[in-house]
Amino acid sequence: MTKRLRGFLSALFLGGICLIGGIKTIISDTDLDLKKVDNITGPVEVAEIRSRFVKGAKISQTQTVFFFRLYNSDQNFTIYRSNNAYGQLQDNVNIGDTIKVYYEPSSEDFNLDVYQVEKGNNIIHNYSTYNKQVSSAAGIMLLAGTVIVAVAIISYTNFNIWKFLMRLPGSS
Question: Are 44 and 95 in contact (CB under 8 A)?
């Protein structure tokens, strides 16, 4: 197998992973029925702003998150907001408060799949906020996957886009 073919197959694989991940995210995490997901109600044991180190393939960064845990749960619930707007959460989620959390169980140190948080009759973190973030991430994954696959095909086949465009009807 040549180096060029290996590179092409690797790019196709990476692009495919991005496309599949984006599609899976759209299917599984958007338009959830909160009545069908896990939820737990209990008193807050810990509620604070924390830093979370995220290591990527080429980029590593620290994210600020709102972290909380309930006395009757082993889940480390985490809410991430790209604008770091955690004031409402800090004001409404305090140690000893009883809250209801809708979530996807996770064995990770930080469970970011927190769909909604309620305190009494008030929704503190709503599903639409979670859905916007997930939809944006899925869109980025789909776009990245499409670009990676397209560039891999174009470079592997030595496709000359300029010649192609010049052959189109109406081109000079």
Answer: yes
Between CA 12 and CA 17 the distance in angstroms is 8
Model confidence over 46-65: pLDDT tens digits? 999 988 777 666 667 788 88
pTM, 2 dp: 0.69
CA distance 43 to 143: 41
Average pLDDT, the chain: 83
pLDDT computed for residue 40 by the predictor: 95
Q: How many CA atoms lie within 13 A of 135 on its CB side?
A: 9
Asked, for residue 172, whether it belongs to a domain, the answer is no
Looking at the structure, tell me whether residues 128 and 140 fall in a common domain: no
Tokens of 34: 């909160």
**d(Cα 42, Cα 113) in Å, to the nearest integer?**
18
Question: Using the 8-state DSSP alphabet, how is residue 109 labeled?
Answer: S
Residue with tokens 């004031």, as numbered in its chain? 87
What tokens appear for 20 in the block?
Answer: 């599949």
